[in-house]
């Protein structure tokens, strides 16, 4: 069954989360993706999801939480029904700088996520553009996959990295457990939104991307915009675009 979710991080500048969940339900969403800043009030978040008929099949969890407190990570995942635990980002000082340091980071990431995987959850990494850096024939993304992890492939950041989303999906075939559906505005447009766009209004070739997603059986789509000026507009238009696929 296809999952079309909304990454709640898109609405971080439009509190409170209770209003966001209501807005999303009214727009027609059935699923969302969480992020670390929301997990402090676990009972409140769960109540809000239930009240609005929303599920949370995946969630973003910081490496500090996964590595430092795996029991809390599992508590959050179990309470909210999160099946896929994704580490989305690390601060620059924690990233690798060359082949060996990135390989060490990939192993650290895999070790941190092992207790979560052993507990029955799918685990993986969510990319930006800097993790496609050329390390001399390989990239941090390749090393993370070699360490045994799956990917939540952010197709917007793939494009921002100068890569083709379809080619990148093929490159990591069998390792992608979900995708972030994110569009990029034409050159010079949407500067107030950091150059991102509502899904279907930008430059991404969604017909070609969807064909490859179907070919690989990838059916978990997370709609995202890093800085929408109107999150309700973005949520509504983007869902309509993805549903039209």
UniProtKB/TrEMBL annotation:
A Pfam family of this chain: AP_endonuc_2
Keyword Membrane: no
Keyword Repressor among UniProt keywords: no
GO molecular function: isomerase activity
Residue span(s) of domain Xylose isomerase-like TIM barrel: 24-239
InterPro entries (UniProt xref): IolE/XylAMocC-like, Xyl_isomerase-like_sf, Xyl_isomerase-like_TIM-brl
Sorted UniProt keywords: Isomerase
Record's signal peptide: none
Descriptive protein name: Sugar phosphate isomerase/epimerase
């Amino acid at each position: 069954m296809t999952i079309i979710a909304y990454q709640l991080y898109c609405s971080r500048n439009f509190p409170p989360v209770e209003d966001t969940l209501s807005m999303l339900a009214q727009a027609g969403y059935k699923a969302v993706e969480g992020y670390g800043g929301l997990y402090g009030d676990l009972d409140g978040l769960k109540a809000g999801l239930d009240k609005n008929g929303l599920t949370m099949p995946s969630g973003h969890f910081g490496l500090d939480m996964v590595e430092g407190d795996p029991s809390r990570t599992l508590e959050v995942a179990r309470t909210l029904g999160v099946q896929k635990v994704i580490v989305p980002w690390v601060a620059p000082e924690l990233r690798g700088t060359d082949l060996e340091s990135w390989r060490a980071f990939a192993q650290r990431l895999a070790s941190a996520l092992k207790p979560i995987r052993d507990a029955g959850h799918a685990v993986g990494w969510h990319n930006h553009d800097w993790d496609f850096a050329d390390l001399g024939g390989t990239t941090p993304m390749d090393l993370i996959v070699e360490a045994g992890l799956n990917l939540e492939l952010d197709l917007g950041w793939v494009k921002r990295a100068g890569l083709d989303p379809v080619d990148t999906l093929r490159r990591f075939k069998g390792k992608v457990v979900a995708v972030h559906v994110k569009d990029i505005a034409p050159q010079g447009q949407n500067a107030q939104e950091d150059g991102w766009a509502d899904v279907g209004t930008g430059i991404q070739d969604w017909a070609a991307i969807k064909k490859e997603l179907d070919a690989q059986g990838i059916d978990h789509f997370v709609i995202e915009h890093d800085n929408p000026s109107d999150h309700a507009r973005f949520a509504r238009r983007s869902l309509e675009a993805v549903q039209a696929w």
